[in-house]
Amino acid sequence: MMKRQATEKFVNNNKTKRPFALWAGMMFLVFALALTGCGGGGTSAPANTPDQSAGTDTGTTQDEGQTAGQPIEAKIGAVFILSGSAAAYGEAQRNGLELAKEELNAANEGKLHLSIVYEDTGGKKESAINAVNKLINEDQVVSIIGPTLSSEMFAVGPVANEAETPIFGISNTVEGINDIGPYVFRNSLPESIAVPTAMKVAYEKYHFKTAALIYTNNDDFSVSGYETMKKTAKDLGLDILTEQSFALNDVDFSAQLTKIKEKNPDVLLVSALYKEGSLVVKSAREMGIDAVIIGGNGFNNPKVFEIAGDTAEGLIVATPFSPEKQDPKVQAFVQAYEAKYGKKPDQFAAQAYDGLYIMAESLLKAGAADRQKLRDALASLKDFEGVSGKLSFDENRNPIGEAVVVVAKDGKYVPFE
Amino acid sequence: MDILRVEHVTRKFGGLIALDDVSFSIEKGEIVGLIGPNGAGKTTLFNAITGVFPPTSGSIVFSGMAIDHLPAHRITALGLARTFQNIRLFKELSVLENVMIGRHTRTKSGTFRGMFKTPFERREEEETRARAYDLLARVGLKKRAQDTAGSLPYGEQRRLEIARALATEPKLLLLDEPAAGMNESETHSLQDLLVSFREWGLSMLVVEHDMGFVMSLSDRIVCLNFGAKIAEGTPEEVQAHPLVIEAYLGREEEAV
Amino acid sequence: MRKDCLRFAKYDSDTHGGRGRIAAMFWQQVINGLTVGSTYSLIAVGYTLIFGVLGMINMAHGQIFIFGAITALLTMTELGWPLWLAFIISVVVSSILGWILELTAFKPLRKKDVPHLAPLISTIGFATVLDDLMIKLFGADSRAFPTEPFGGRVTFGPVQIRVVDFVILGVALLLMIVLHLWIERTKLGKAIRATSENIDTAEILGIPTDRVIVFTVVLASGLGGIAGILLGLAYGALMPSMGLTLGFKGLAVLVLGGLGNVPGAMLGGLILGVVEVLSVAYGQSTYRDAVAFLMIMIIFFIRPQGLFGSQEKA
Ligand SMILES: Nc1ncnc2c1ncn2[C@@H]1O[C@H](COP(=O)(O)OP(=O)(O)OP(=O)(O)O)[C@@H](O)[C@H]1O
Ligand SMILES: [Mg+2]
């Protein structure tokens, strides 16, 4: 009997945690793979519709025939990032749109009445697709403004194009946006125009010889900007010493910047959205990289100064819009914007503002809130004078315009000279 | 005066009645043996007394205080300690630390005061260490103080568990098969060790299947079968008890 | 003005031999890795302590410490409070959140007849609530973390280190040494270790395990609060989403270091940081996380119990 006791004891000796350890390990790896697989993209903020009240004030659909005496009732969808880590872009865009809507509705009293339905994507392609489908099918909008990111446009552009609904990008700067289809427009200068302008103007002054590149490698906008930068650097005859990259949501850039510092380039070209971009600039300066830094379109946001602080000083970017520009139209816009929101507009607000003006002009020209007529009116746009410069479309509906080069000084961008 | 009184204790696990209306008591300074075939409910009784699985009904009175439904650490603080049938040392901690942890309730530095090392805490820690060494010397493990507990051979692990239990300064010590797995000479020295604890007036309740060991050690024997008490008395009385003989013989035959 | 800057302090690459420069760069990268890694370590220690006493992963740990750190950041930027006070605020807020977590997510499920993994789910719930609350209170955007007090760099031969990295590494290592000694030497530290090894036995030996658990959860969260501030210093900004992404790093280290093994978590964090940085430095930055997780997988094939876990514990 005693022996039996002893064996039994050994069998149930240890209360072991092994199964859980294994389980935890497996679970963790699954999570890890999921995380790396999707490149850590996106935030978890829910997609909500912050300002739907704007869209509920009219029941008119765009198909109703317009008689001369009645104003055109146009319901427009807006698809922006209003939550998550890139929300500052969408916020500026909504502000610009709202200001333009008020002005336009007042100015065109009796002729045109605009209402806007906002949808939030949180920066996620899936949410953007849902939003666009809802706007087209449920809200029956005549056209869509947005989405904020180029990568989102690549996801939703085909959807709108398929539904023959004009979709108008106000911040999509990647090459090839217009190739999606005939219903896809944008007034944002492609980076292929803006970035080379900045680089050339800076080159004129500094005559740098060597360059290093750093960019977000899992974001369409940043990758496109990087390609443009690289091409321009070659055109300028620069020696590219190193190319570094990181992923969206990365916060540690020390390894990449250490390599760049070791190469000691004359100019550092950064293609990223403001969140990562500002941190890159900040860390680069803190680590003692003293090269001239030229950034892409993503840096056109006041948040850059909030995050990078003093280290932003000297940062060069090209922008279609500068609130410092001595132009009556621009200054009127800046003043109205400041009065309404208590801060200066950035490029995103300006292009949104211009976008709605273009929309209104085209609707008046079309004479009805009709998707097809609106598309044709948009396509024939010529020499539109907006706050972000003069704009026309080429035969592929690509915007033709000019960029201003600005440099960061004392916490804001001032014209570069 | 009795130190422990178990009154009509019943413990059920689902439909299984592991303890069935068990009553008995232990006098101060007495060594009581608890026997019974496998599955009789001996360990379950230990668990009920020490607060691991409180009784479903009935009451347990320790030093005049009802302890059923007190949390286990409070029962320990009152002066009741035990060892385990399946040795349960902190295998990753050192031999010395195992014993020092046993003194948790006997040191004044409260859970939160124990965070800092004031002179008071330092002195107390030294005292704890010294007492732990004494206990290790007593069970013959002083030389192994710095080894990890898991590295000890089996017999020494059993003795370390006893030292750790003693560190809580119990008035009543519950030993669940302390001689299991030991050879004859180890069993002998264990018996001497346990008898020597009488000098402190320590009461003991010992579960053991080694009949020679438990009969010669105990003043009194309680026998359980199928959760119920079937006999109680001196070793001679219990050994001669027909129900006890039947319980063991019945089981032996089954086992053959 | 940038022009002089451009040519300023340009160290002459010819004075160092090619090999010397490569070695210097390597050490520079190792230090980068250690700095990042020391923050991973601190985060991982939080998971590890709780895993030790509860045998459960606290999925809300990341949200808890980032909540504490952002609150502290706001006291600095909005109220002008100093950095040392921010450390305290962060620790206090994180600790309180930890305590609420214990009360709401862990305790109600303890000793109840619930599935083993139920507390895991309740901590995920807690994390979701904190995430939403942070978006409401702070917004999802990144906020600059003032690093001015530690501007500048120190030079050791060819290696240059940001002062702020020194501070981070120093604080993190000091904290870990103190924590290690505390766990090894003090009565409460022993009680935590005993509870980690076997909670029932600890209870029987007179340790009030319920209180030990509360204390451990609060301690782990408070340590997270310090880690959060160090993250702010290291990266120059904080945002709510860092709770999730860096939380995952901490989880990786928990598993890497051997579940519930505190020194393992400390070393594991440093190792993960260095491996990550070196994989970027000498490989492809695209695969930063992938390389790190691949390393963890390989380690599990070789040592299923984790780097420092003992056989029985795993
Ligand atoms: N936690 C539990 N849950 C369910 N049943 C249990 C539990 N603990 C004990 N039992 C059952 O109670 C009965 C008594 O078991 P116990 O361990 O007390 O016997 P024992 O007398 O100690 O036996 P042994 O001599 O083999 O150690 C057994 O049938 C056992 O299966
Ligand atoms: Mg038993």
TrEMBL record, chain A:
<dbReference type="Pfam" id="PF13458">
    <property type="entry name" value="Peripla_BP_6"/>
</dbReference>
<dbReference type="InterPro" id="IPR028081">
    <property type="entry name" value="Leu-bd"/>
</dbReference>
<dbReference type="GO" id="GO:0006865">
    <property type="term" value="P:amino acid transport"/>
</dbReference>
<feature type="domain" description="Leucine-binding protein">
    <location>
        <begin position="74"/>
        <end position="409"/>
    </location>
</feature>
<dbReference type="InterPro" id="IPR051010">
    <property type="entry name" value="BCAA_transport"/>
</dbReference>
<feature type="region of interest" description="Disordered">
    <location>
        <begin position="44"/>
        <end position="66"/>
    </location>
</feature>
<dbReference type="InterPro" id="IPR000709">
    <property type="entry name" value="Leu_Ile_Val-bd"/>
</dbReference>
<keyword id="KW-0029">Amino-acid transport</keyword>
<feature type="compositionally biased region" description="Low complexity">
    <location>
        <begin position="54"/>
        <end position="66"/>
    </location>
</feature>
<comment type="similarity">
    <text>Belongs to the leucine-binding protein family.</text>
</comment>
<dbReference type="InterPro" id="IPR028082">
    <property type="entry name" value="Peripla_BP_I"/>
</dbReference>
<keyword id="KW-0732">Signal</keyword>
<protein>
    <submittedName>
        <fullName>Branched-chain amino acid ABC transporter, amino acid-binding protein</fullName>
    </submittedName>
</protein>
<keyword id="KW-0813">Transport</keyword>
TrEMBL record, chain B:
<keyword id="KW-0067">ATP-binding</keyword>
<dbReference type="Pfam" id="PF00005">
    <property type="entry name" value="ABC_tran"/>
</dbReference>
<protein>
    <submittedName>
        <fullName>Branched-chain amino acid transport ATP-binding protein LivG</fullName>
    </submittedName>
</protein>
<dbReference type="GO" id="GO:0015188">
    <property type="term" value="F:L-isoleucine transmembrane transporter activity"/>
</dbReference>
<dbReference type="InterPro" id="IPR051120">
    <property type="entry name" value="ABC_AA/LPS_Transport"/>
</dbReference>
<dbReference type="InterPro" id="IPR027417">
    <property type="entry name" value="P-loop_NTPase"/>
</dbReference>
<dbReference type="GO" id="GO:1903805">
    <property type="term" value="P:L-valine import across plasma membrane"/>
</dbReference>
<dbReference type="GO" id="GO:0042941">
    <property type="term" value="P:D-alanine transmembrane transport"/>
</dbReference>
<dbReference type="GO" id="GO:0005304">
    <property type="term" value="F:L-valine transmembrane transporter activity"/>
</dbReference>
<dbReference type="InterPro" id="IPR003439">
    <property type="entry name" value="ABC_transporter-like_ATP-bd"/>
</dbReference>
<keyword id="KW-0547">Nucleotide-binding</keyword>
<dbReference type="InterPro" id="IPR003593">
    <property type="entry name" value="AAA+_ATPase"/>
</dbReference>
<dbReference type="GO" id="GO:0005886">
    <property type="term" value="C:plasma membrane"/>
</dbReference>
<dbReference type="GO" id="GO:1903806">
    <property type="term" value="P:L-isoleucine import across plasma membrane"/>
</dbReference>
<dbReference type="Pfam" id="PF12399">
    <property type="entry name" value="BCA_ABC_TP_C"/>
</dbReference>
<feature type="domain" description="ABC transporter">
    <location>
        <begin position="4"/>
        <end position="251"/>
    </location>
</feature>
<dbReference type="GO" id="GO:0016887">
    <property type="term" value="F:ATP hydrolysis activity"/>
</dbReference>
<dbReference type="GO" id="GO:0015808">
    <property type="term" value="P:L-alanine transport"/>
</dbReference>
<keyword id="KW-0813">Transport</keyword>
<dbReference type="InterPro" id="IPR032823">
    <property type="entry name" value="BCA_ABC_TP_C"/>
</dbReference>
<dbReference type="GO" id="GO:0015192">
    <property type="term" value="F:L-phenylalanine transmembrane transporter activity"/>
</dbReference>
<dbReference type="GO" id="GO:0005524">
    <property type="term" value="F:ATP binding"/>
</dbReference>
